[in-house]
Amino acid sequence: MNNDIKELCSLDIDLYKCITENIDTNRVVITDKQIIHMAERHPEAYNDVLIELKETIQFPDYIIRDEKRENTGLIIKKFLSNSEMKEHTFIVLRICTDSNNGKFSNSVISGWKISEKRLQSYLRNKPVLYKKE
């Protein structure tokens, strides 16, 4: 399987220090493997999430601690949509704490859409590290 790496954007290290102080690079990537994972697991949101990845990472509305994975954040951004339902782009982002001299980067693990109701549940029940003012 092809596992090419695609560079997405630069990370605002100061903003993302809420996940870990030890951020070794500002480079954010996604692999073909993760893109395929998103297409298979979240086909209804796949196209929108890919379009919104960069903006979600660069201008998040919320960063929530991922309690299952170390040095990982749940990044959430609200986008205006044509539908009546409010949906938010939800990205799992692993922070690179050792780039091994530039060989490794911060990486997108997955992404999908969540409803307003799910967002409110996350905000009540999980550690919110950052909230856009």
Summarize the SSE layout with pairings.
Layout: E1 5-10, H1 13-16, E2 27-31, H2 32-41, H3 46-58, E3 62-65, E4 72-78, E5 87-94, E6 106-115, H4 116-125, E7 128-131
Parallel strand pairs: 2-6
Antiparallel strand pairs: 1-2, 3-4, 3-7, 4-5, 5-6
Sum this structure up briefly.
With 133 residues, this protein is α+β, with helices and mostly antiparallel strands. 28% of the residues lie in helices and 33% in strands.
Question: What does this protein look like?
Answer:
It is a single chain. This protein has 133 residues and is α+β, with helices and mostly antiparallel strands. It has helices spanning 13-16, 32-41, 46-58, 116-125; strands spanning 5-10, 27-31, 62-65, 72-78, 87-94, 106-115, 128-131. The protein has a 7-stranded mixed sheet. The chain is globular, with a radius of gyration of 14 Å. 23% of the residues are buried. The mean pLDDT is 90.
From the structure above, extract its key features:
alpha+beta, 7-stranded mixed beta sheet, 33% strand, 7 strands, 4 helices, 28% helix, 133 residues
Rounded average pLDDT: 90
| Anisotropy-based shape | globular
The main β sheet shows up as: 7 strands, mixed
Query: What string, H for helix and E for strand, traces the elements in order?
Result: EHEHHEEEEHE
According to DSSP, the number of beta strands is 7
- Considering DSSP H and I runs of 4 or more, what fraction of the residues is helical? 25-40%
Total helical segments: 4
Unreliable runs: none
